[in-house]
Amino acid sequence: MASRRLALNLAQGLRGRAGGLSVPIRRGLATPHSPALKTQTTTLKNGLTVASQYSPYAQTSTVGMWIDAGSRAETDETNGTAHFLEHLAFKGTSKRTQQQLELEIENMGAHLNAYTSRENTVYFARALNEDVPQCVDILQDILQNSKLEESAIERERDVILRESEEVEKQLEEVVFDHLHATAYQQQPLGRTILGPRENIRDITRTELTNYIKNNYTADRMVLVGAGGVPHEQLVEMADKYFAGLPSKSPESAAYLLSKKKADFIGSDVRIRDDTIPTANIAIAVEGVSWNDPDYFTALVTQAIVGNYDKALGNAPHQGSKLSGIVHKNDLATSYMSFSTSYSDTGLWGIYMVTDNLANVDDLVHFSLREWTRLCGSVTPAEVERAKAQLKASILLSLDGTSAVAEDIGRQIVNTGRRMSPGEIERVIDAITEKDVMEFANKKIWDQDIAISAVGSIEGLFDYSRIRADMSRNF
């Protein structure tokens, strides 16, 4: 609201001043006009995709490798391998020791990082434009020549075990891990990213090298650039450093299983711990994949349900109908609606935290009543509000070369192409209340749900009672 008001005041002020000018305007130096920035893609002979968005006036760049492999590409026995490799990537290669690697990055003033998700592994660097070739050289070195020394493996094993302990203290992480585990039981997507502690203790160098051999192949990798690096230059670097990558992944049992469509299973998992002063509950239906035609409709519907945080000053006025009910009746400390997508499925739902333990059932009831309301009673005003929030969120998230690189890599790895911000805005603008209600009827009304609950959850009713709320007539 404040930014819109500011823009309006500026526009009115400029119009007012322009009408009263009686002296000629002295023109300053002109800024060169640049056309709309476009994402360019090239595929090398071995199948590696190179994608970039060149900004001619940017002085820094982000380059990275997005890989179509994460914890979903593992087996039960090797779960945790992808994340383990991420830790070992910066511990030395056949060309550079760990100290040389760290000094090289420090001397450039660059930043080198990596992360693992259920479906992707990413290694990226941020640096001045003139240092991009050196960064690409480092990336190819850690991806293709990591030494994976036994001493480094043992050191990182302890680090990852401590990280696992820290994650177990973060209730939101725990709840969402259990939500995946129950919604996708006995399936690759249901595993955690870090893996069970016994796996972390037992992972061997052989399993690590096999994961690289089976998954770090050109057909599943995208070299991404954003900022001041021209596309042609990035293609030349890719041809120089990555031409030797194997062109295709071997069709191992783990690979075939990771590409099999995940089946959503209506079920629940509950971990009651009365020493935790809050009830932490996630409820989800099966959502949409990255490529689903309803992908953006799911996000708009999620935005209608909205978010709530009692600690914020604007808590009574957070826009959505559900937040008003929750605040008026003090039903929750916070809640967050979510729409999480994967290559062939997704989770659409809500995560709630409350210390009002006597009214846990009311919180769940009113949340699911809001879901069923979306199936037949959505106003144009709330759809427009949700669309405005979604567009602002997407555009604001593209601030900086790293964010742009992330957007390019994620979209191309998961969908095969990148939608421009303008294209996304047009798709969102076209969504109507009718689309939202059709989505809700298809994905929410009388659908099975997955429930994950941790903490003081004695007041949470049983699964069948909650499931019955999914087809409530007011």
Automatic annotation (TrEMBL):
GO CC terms, sorted: mitochondrial matrix
What cofactor does this one take? Zn(2+)
Q: Name one GO biological process term.
A: protein processing involved in protein targeting to mitochondrion
Q: Which InterPro entries does the entry mention?
A: Metalloenz_LuxS/M16 (IPR011249), MPP/UQCRC_Complex (IPR050361), Pept_M16_N (IPR011765), Pept_M16_Zn_BS (IPR001431), Peptidase_M16_C (IPR007863)
- What's the main place this protein lives? mitochondrion
User: Keywords for this entry?
Assistant: Hydrolase, Metal-binding, Metalloprotease, Mitochondrion, Protease, Transit peptide, Zinc
Task: State its Enzyme Commission number(s).
Answer: 3.4.24.64
Purpose? Catalytic subunit of the essential mitochondrial processing protease (MPP), which cleaves the mitochondrial sequence off newly imported precursors proteins. Preferentially, cleaves after an arginine at position P2.
Family assignment from sequence similarity: Belongs to the peptidase M16 family.
What protein am I looking at? mitochondrial processing peptidase
Recorded source organism is Cercophora samala
